[in-house]
Amino acid sequence: MSISLKSIRTERQWRASTGLTKEQFYKLVDLFSSAYEEIFGESLGEKSSDQESDVKFNTYEDLLFFGLYSIKSGLTYDLLGLSFDLSPSNVHAKQGMVLSVLQSALEQGGYMPKRIYNSNEEFIADWNNEGAIMVDGTEQRRQRPKNQILQKKDYSGKKKHIR
């Protein structure tokens, strides 16, 4: 048994599985399908008919649901594979593809936040009408690079881990 878009019945389930309401989801599907066709130069149906293997996601809705669910749930590739009846490597490839299409769709729709500011004035002008701004400054542990130059570049100055 795999997870399906058809099994979502309530707004609470929509928000729990995708982070969006049903209405927001279907608005995003329109942007997503346009971005997909622009990136790949053909529709999902055309691309699916070219493939000989069993295609899991036949519609833009199913593909977008998979991508949003994978982001929202935070499951490992193994568990996502179990949930959608895919191999972990296939989940990884599909998730990467969906995220790149989703980013393009959000940029085209004007919903992607600006990430780089050239000055404090530019930042203030963009955020002037907002209330409080919260910044997640949590430091994440990561694998230390073997290259000495990269180690120095990424050094935070902290020597002890807080548990």
In short:
With 163 residues, this protein is mainly alpha-helical.
Topology:
Elements: H1 11-18, H2 22-40, H3 44-50, H4 60-73, H5 77-84, H6 88-109, H7 120-127, H8 148-154
Helix pairs in contact: 2-4, 2-6, 4-6, 5-6
Q: Which tags fit this structure?
A:
mainly alpha; 163 residues
Our measurement of the CA-to-CA distance between the termini, rounded to an integer number of angstroms, reads 39 Å
- Point out poorly predicted stretches: none
Oligomeric assembly: single chain
Q: Would you report the number of β strands? A: 0
Q: What is the helical fraction, as a range of percent?
A: 55-70%
- State the helix count: 8
Q: Could you report the average pLDDT, rounded to the nearest whole number?
A: 86
Radius of gyration: 20 Å
* Largest sheet composition: none
Strand content: under 5%
Q: What is the H-and-E element order? A: HHHHHHHH
Structural class: mainly alpha
- The shape, in one word, is globular
